[in-house]
Amino acid sequence: MSLKEKIQNDLIVSIKSQESVKTSTLRMLKAEIMKFEVSGGTKKEASDEDILTIIQKQVKQRKDAVRQYKAGNRVELAEKEEAEAKILQKYLPEQMSEEEIKNIVQEAINEVGASSKTDMGKVMGVAMPKLKGRADGKIVNRIVIQLLS
User: Fold this and answer.
1) How many domains does the chain have?
2) Do 28 and 81 sit in the same domain of this protein?
3) Number of Cα atoms under 13 Å in the Cβ half of residue 24
């Protein structure tokens, strides 16, 4: 079953069980997927990888909103955003540990022959496709800087 079909099935289940937060979150996600599919002039089918990218973007937006709401002392809105982020994260693959990320980054450093922070772009360019969906870019960035220092 594709990720898109799983989201659709989960949406139907959440509607039937009257889980309002999950239903609204999955409807929003489905709308984002449809928007992706019709963007760019020609209609295309979103692959699982495309959908993972959309979900990651949505989770990141939720986390940013949580920070802003907490800074503005809007706890109820922050809690809603956190709940939505948790629902979306269930569709992402399990996140890698820092040790696993370090190993992949070290391989990338060896592959491109990086020796200083000026080679950071090359390292990130090789490492990120291998880590896509399984590691936060901020963590990868921090590890690359740490290993190149």
Assistant:
1) 2
2) yes
3) 7
